[in-house]
# Entry
Amino acid sequence: MKKANIIINKDFKSGEIDKRIYSSFVEHMGRVIYSGIYEPGHPKADEDGFRQDVMEKVKAMGVTGIRYPGGNFVSCYDWRDGVGPVQRRPKRLELAWRSVETNEFGTNEFMKWAGKVNVEPIFALNLGTKGIENAVSFVEYCNIAEGTWYSDLRKEHGVKDPYGIKTWCLGNEMDGDWQIGHKTADEYGRLAEETAKAIKLIDPDIELIACGSSKSDMDTYPEWEAITLKHTYDYVDYIALHQYYGGQEKGTGSFLSQALDMEKYIRTVISVCDYVKAEQRSSKELYISLDEWGIWATPDNEVSEEINRAPWRVAPGLNEQIYTMEDTLLFADMLMVMLKYADRIKIACQSLLTNISAAIMTEKNGDVWVQPIYYPFSYMSKHGRGVVLQSIVDSPAYQCELFTKVPYIDTVAVYNEDVKELIYFQMNRMEESIEITCEIQGFKPEHIIEHVALWSEDKKMTNYVNHNAIQPVQMEDVVLCERIFSYEIKPLSWNMIRVKV
Amino acid sequence: MSTKKAKMVIDKAFRIASVDKRIYGSFIEHLGRAVYDGIYQPDHEMADENGFRTDVINMVKELNVPIVRYPGGNFVSNFYWEDSVGPVADRAKRLELAWRSMETNEIGVNEFAKWAKSANSSLMMAVNLGTRGIADACNLLEYCNHPSGTKYSDLRIKHGVKAPHDIKLWCLGNEMDGPWQIGHKTMEEYGRLAEETAKAMRLIDSDIELVSCGSSSKDMATFPEWEAVTLSHTYEYVDYVSMHQYYGNAGDDSNDYLAASDDMDAFIKSVISTCDYIKAKKRSLKNMYISFDEWNVWFHSNLEDNDTMEKHPWQKAPSLLEDIYTFEDALLVGLMLITLIKHADRVKIACLAQLVNVIAPIMTEAGGGTAWKQTIFYPFMHASKYGRGTALFSIIDTPKHETKNHGEITDIESVVVHNEEKEELTIFAVNRNLKEDVSLESEVSSFDGYQLLEHIVLEHDDLKAKNSAGIQNVRPKSGGQSKKEDGVVISLLHKASWNVIRLGKDGNHTL
# Structure
């Protein structure tokens, strides 16, 4: 059996985890909202039409924040359409997904729902078809107490207290030619700069996210970051990264190796930020908001075919991707990679929350069930809190189409001082077991609290037919001896080991 | 009042990188008395058969300098290498524009290669991309590295050098971002010229490594655009980007002066970020490394130098850049060395500028007296001697103090190097607090069986103390206060001191 050795040391820390790294994303798209989180008339709906069965899953998933209302949707959205008396709200052609948006659900409904599930809102502004005026009026509507046109309008809409929404995205994926109102780097840089300046005049405590690249293989990456940040550096707090990985057809080894691409992507964006920091003679550090991430199991052309086959439907079922065990491994690994860069990644939004590339699936008028990706997210959100420790990993490795050296084992360790726990998240990219040894320096381990493993005999297994086909299993196989613990990691498995120290 | 405390943790598993020995390189430029009346003085009693001073060579050997950058510097940007090869009697005298001196060309690449060999060093050669270009760079490379049978290789043989010099490391010009440079270029101009020169040179010898000019200091208005634009041209054809940086205490604020190594650290990080940005932009798989090929303290001699160059130009080997270093300069040199070692993963070459007489650790008395060691000689010697092996991450929790321009800075700066081969561990540490001693507790328990060997200290009551031909006021002494208890080394780091705390495995060493 192959062997891997991992060393951590209490004093070698890499970053404090910001709980907002466990955020998700709700977009007006497909059935994310309508018949996803919101379905009046459903037996489990509450007085506001919110599905309580879904709310329970959201809470148990440990989602800390939600980005809203898009996504591509936002680039053609006027927030004014989604507030005020519901019967007077206009139906709109929704261009991003070629649907009809009823606007039944808008800002105030979302904020009420967010309060019920206890998540922090991250709002996105339309810098596609709109601009500074639409953005500042929206911020005024949400955050000013009273006595002005838009703050009084909010009160008239029945919301007395301002929301104080702290985090705002300056548009969405503006580098993408698919974006409604797509812009060049210079055009976006200028617009984002001036919008940011205006918003900070309203509320200097607001934190702003500038659009970065939509994925690591955009032609304009990383020039986009360099050019736009030269405009926005002083006025924004975060740069966005978006990334979805597909490529299942390339085989398990290549597919899973994409976590290394993600790491490279993150490191590069950090480098570009630090380059612009030096260029601007700034003393401020820019942070990363990885505010769309996930696995893409459906090829893009199938998605657009589905949209074009029957456009202008209300809440059509779009991209309701079903995840395999293999998908789940890369999904979990993406989150593990983010933890390793917790010093710079402060926000991350798993995309999306319900039904589309989602962990939580709903049937219209029916049940809610969870995909296997739900589990690593919820365990990491629940236990992955505290300080990330650097790991020295000695693992056997393989070569694939994309990378010459991919370690079979990936691992990240977190120290939670409040509960005196060391939490390891580990995965095996190999289709065989590997013997793992973990040396713990600087702590006195007392006992293993638990070992949870997620795997399947069939890597293509999903929870679609049998909703419980892939579930975490409590293991009793970790042996702790003084400062070293060891176990055999299952083939193609994701694991969490908690050690009391 | 009890002594302030700092704690440091190292763990042999947490490594930065193997230290490339070339970070202990230096630099000889045809400038002032570096060559003539420095390394070369045929009529000196210590001169060898080639006219090289053996006393100077011995001191260079003490510093153990694996590479020497040559022949410039600003000098190279108007240098015609053909002038300095062939029969010495036939060599042309030239107006040397960079330093407004008279260049006799008595020493050229063939002589210098001989010198480097006797000093146990090797050459890092620079080509002129100021007043010349691709053809002359190629000709020089052909002259130096091609075995025989071509115009320039045969010319070398005719000049008595049968075997090629086989120089593997070449600088594509010098400080081309600086308006003072003869033939200064914009970043686009330099990027293009360096790219095409690099491509051509690699056709002659595919084993050479090339250095692309970076910024002349962190304060250049074009930094870091210069790096981004020029590397966008040269990225695939070069191996290193250069960095240059000098510091001085002209404002006489010693407390703030010693914070300068923090600026150097930030400078290195920014250049790494820029390299990695361009790597992604070029979709390259290759890492760009750093050649920090000019660094030191330089400010003492500025006024005199300007006077000499303006009012008394065209002298042969005038006294120029003869900074006489103080004790505090040695502390900053130590801090800069620590900073370089901390970046061992990316900084693969560094050249202390310079080696003899010109902003140098080694001085010779003008007109043929003795050679002597400046204050900065010692930290460099220690780092070069003991700083070989693997640089380790050190987690340090240190008291801090306020400075005028750098805010609050750390009292203790430190780096640790593990020499696996010799089973030695060396802690380099500077206490840059000028008022208070600090007790440093270094947790080294992952180094089983390692015992304290010695604690070397460089310190002086007077920060401005200098050495001279007669007196070594500032020199290291053994017997610093360190003890080892279990896995912890406790060292008293006196205020304003350079410390080298050495440990070794049982049985290998005697105290």
Remarks:
- The longest strand of chain B covers residues 4-18.
